[in-house]
Design brief:
By secondary structure, the chain is an alpha+beta fold. The protein has five helices and twelve strands. A five-stranded antiparallel sheet has the order 10-9-8-11-12. α1 (about 10-30) runs antiparallel to α2 and α4 (about 145-185) runs antiparallel to α5.
């Protein structure tokens, strides 16, 4: 006897919504130029496809299966298997809700939606009636304390994708900044005006940023108005009509910086930090997904779940 409780409309709706959201973000990041968000490339794409596909399948299989051997409760992120031989006590608060106390002291709450299938209480009664001809030795899944494996797998999945996105974004920005460095030209602009903004710094006190707007004549004879900024309260340093040494991107003259390149250097430092953090996170997450996945699969598919031997009847 096997009875499956699944709410197919809800399962399909959840899986479809998850797939639609993942596709929207994935396509957007795949075609991103890096200016509006992270970039998705071949390092992270296989992991994203694998994990989104796994989650979609789990959403579709969300439900409870009851048979002569035990009860399997599948949820989007976890699976619980309760063989009847491990049940110490079962109480029904309604025809479709049961609280199960296992022989090892753990408690499992099971709720199934009312459907065309018989109630959970009725199915369990049928199992008790049929038990005389079934001898099964099996253990619950997961074992006590082994739920940490699922948590580790989920954390590793988040880390491999998050670390991959950070690493890929850093690589993309590094290439962009390297190409810009080759196009950079030095010149002298003329200050049009300057101003200082103040930001609240909490206990550390306020911080200041100085902005300078200047006119720059480029080689084709046209004049470009550019805006540069740097940390500090330097409003008294830059006066109207003062010369301002700058470095600018010859292909995009408005992309400029002071001659000592404080913002260019900050860009390079950001790439270095993200690469240093992203790469180890990516590889650690990938290792975690593989390692936890193997152990979880071994635990779930181990033959002991279906080994037949002498056992007591369910409570």
């Amino acid at each position: 006897m096997t009875v499956r409780y699944r709410y197919w409309p809800g399962n399909v709706a959840l899986a479809g919504a998850l797939l639609a959201i993942a596709l929207a973000f994935g396509v957007s990041m795949w075609h991103s130029d890096g200016s509006q968000g992270p970039v998705l490339s071949w390092w992270t794409l296989p992991w994203a496809l694998l994990l989104v596909g796994l989650l979609v399948v789990r959403c579709l299989r969300w439900g409870v299966t009851v048979d002569d051997i035990g009860l399997t409760m599948r949820e989007p992120l976890t699976t619980t298997y309760v063989p009847w031989t491990s049940v110490a006590e079962i109480e029904f608060s309604s025809a479709f809700t049961a609280a199960i106390r296992l022989a090892d002291g753990r408690r499992v709450r099971v709720t199934v939606g009312s459907s065309r299938e018989p109630s959970l209480r009725e199915v369990y009664s049928r199992v008790r009636e049929r038990w005389a001809g079934v001898d099964v030795g099996a253990r619950p899944y997961p074992r006590p304390g082994w739920r940490a494996l699922s948590i580790g797998f989920i954390v590793s999945a988040v880390v491999v994708i998050g670390g991959g996105l950070v690493w890929e974004d850093a690589q993309y920005d590094g290439d962009v900044y390297a190409a810009r460095d080759l196009r950079d030209r030095q010149a002298t602009a003329v200050v049009a005006r300057s101003w200082v903004t103040k930001q609240s710094g909490g206990e550390g006190g306020p911080t200041y940023t100085t902005y300078v707007k200047a006119r720059l004549r480029v080689p084709d004879g046209s004049t470009v108005v550019l805006e540069v900024h740097r940390p500090g309260e330097l409003g008294g340093v830059y006066h109207e009509e003062d010369p301002l040494p700058v470095v600018y991107d010859s292909a995009h003259p408005r992309d400029a910086d002071f001659a000592d390149r404080p913002n260019r250097d900050a860009n390079d430092d950001s790439v270095a930090v993200r690469s240093t953090i992203g790469a180890p996170l990516y590889w650690a997450g990938a290792l975690g997904v593989v390692a936890f996945g193997i152990v979880i699969a071994f635990e779930w598919f181990t033959p002991v779940r279906l080994t037949r031997r002498t056992s007591r009847s369910p409570r």
